Amino acid sequence: MLRYSFLGISIISAINFLLTDELLVQLLLAICLLASLGIAVVWPEPLPPPPSMDLWSEAPDEKEREMKVCSHCGKAVDKKWSMCPYCSKKV
Ligand SMILES: [Zn+2]
Predict the structure, then answer these.
(1) CB within 5 A of ion ligand 1: which residues?
(2) How far is the CA of 62 from the centre of ligand 1 (A)?
(3) Is the pLDDT at 84 greater than 90, yes or no?
(4) Domain residues of the chain, as ranges?
């Protein structure tokens, strides 16, 4: 948004430059034109606002994995596993 303001200033300066006959005013307008146009070209776009902190709380809770208990050591293991990671026996 700010760079459009500078672009507008440079356009107005260009119009004034064409309308005036005073050499000093022309010189000042030329400086103003170059400065504002330069800023309008090189001015970086503002960074987007940081995401709000409550964005992460909207994420769904991790899905509860289905568990089963190992018949050998009694520890809870993932239901998809066929081998117990604790005692290396078939579940
Ligand atoms: Zn086990």
Answers:
(1) 70, 72-73, 84, 86-87
(2) 25
(3) yes
(4) 2-42
